[in-house]
Specification:
alpha+beta, five-stranded mixed β-sheet, 6 helices
C-alpha cells in the first residue's frame, strides 16, 4: 500500500490483490450504489449493505443477498479502507445487531454492533475489535 493513496484506491487495490475479481469491482460498486451504502471521503471508503444476522455465512458473502425493511438487522461490509467510524454512524441511524465482514480468504467475521459502539454514542470502540494499525478489508 502506498502512502498518500486515498481510501478508495486502497480498497480498490486490496480488492484485486485479495481475490475479489471473481466479481468485477465496478459491478460490486454499482450494486452497492443501488442496494446498499457507498461512502467515499478523504478519511474512509465503505461499501456495505443491509443483511439478516441469522442468515448463513454464504448469504452474507453473496453479492445479491440484501435484506429489505424491518427484516434487516445487520450490515455486511463488502469493502472498506480507512476509518470505519462512518459505518458505525450509519449503524446508529439504522439499528443493527451485527456488522459482518470477511478479510481475504478468511471465514466470515460477525461482530456485535454494541461491542463496536463501545457502549455510548460517539465512542466507536473499533480499536477494541481491530488492533492498530487497522487492517483494510
Amino acid at each position: 500500500m502506498m502512502a498518500g493513496m486515498s481510501p478508495y484506491l486502497r480498497a480498490h487495490e486490496a480488492y484485486h490483490r485479495d481475490g475479489g475479481p471473481w466479481i468485477p469491482w465496478v459491478d460490486a460498486l454499482d450494486f452497492h450504489l443501488q442496494h446498499g451504502v457507498v461512502i467515499s471521503t478523504p478519511e474512509c471508503f465503505i461499501m456495505a449493505r443491509r443483511v439478516v444476522a441469522a442468515w448463513p455465512d454464504h448469504h452474507h458473502l453473496t453479492l445479491r443477498a440484501v435484506a429489505d425493511g424491518d427484516a434487516a438487522d445487520a450490515w455486511h461490509v463488502w469493502s472498506a479502507a480507512g476509518s470505519l467510524d462512518a459505518l458505525l454512524e450509519i449503524a446508529w441511524r439504522h439499528p443493527s445487531r451485527q456488522i459482518t465482514f470477511q478479510r481475504r480468504d478468511e471465514r466470515l467475521h460477525r461482530v456485535a454492533a454494541e461491542r463496536l459502539r463501545g457502549g455510548s454514542r460517539g465512542t466507536s470502540g473499533w480499536g477494541e475489535v481491530v488492533p492498530e494499525p487497522r487492517p483494510h478489508f
